[in-house]
Amino acid sequence: MTLKKWGYLFWTTLVIGTVVGMIAGAIMKAMDTEFVFLGVSVGAYEWIFMLFGASMISVLSQMGFFAYLTLRFIALSLFRRKMVYWTILQVLFVGIAVIDLAYFRYSSYEGTDRSFLGFTVLPAIILLISLAVSYWKLQQTNRSAFVPTLFFMSVVTIIEAVPAFNLDETGYAYVIFMIVPLLACNAWQIMQLHKILQK
Questions:
Q1: Average of per-residue pLDDT across 39-59
Q2: What is the pTM of this model?
Q3: Once rounded to an integer, what is the mean pLDDT over residues 62-70?
Q4: Any residues with CB less than 8 A from the CB of 101 and at least 6 apart, and which?
């Protein structure tokens, strides 16, 4: 990957994340939801913090993307039957991450009257979007790209969104504000990867 290609990926991801984050923030504002940034109410400066937050989330997405590429390189160098074991591990991690997001968030609200079903909606949405992007990637490349794309879109997105999940019940709007641009940025990056790496 040349510096020019990396620059293209960086700036386009930054723009996509910022625009999508601002749209998600505007929808939250239209629903009369007070914007909370990292658990702090920002009052009159909501739009400025929304812009800053959306761009920061896009940069976080890029960090996760390059961390995943590094992890993939290390994992493939560790296993003898590289693709088989790494593929199995990725599928296992997808299942663990999705279940973890539903169950452990539910268990943290024990004693309340909230149903478990409500905590399965977000993991299900993330998994469905991840499957759709993975299928799209498969169509543009080959079958071996399906599982890595699924892993990146689900597991890495969930890990990147941990700060939003750690907020209390009142921070649910921030979960939406963080997840939507993360999914958009991650989808953009993984779909651009094979094009950037082409000679």
A1: 77
A2: 0.86
A3: 94
A4: 122, 123, 126, 158, 165
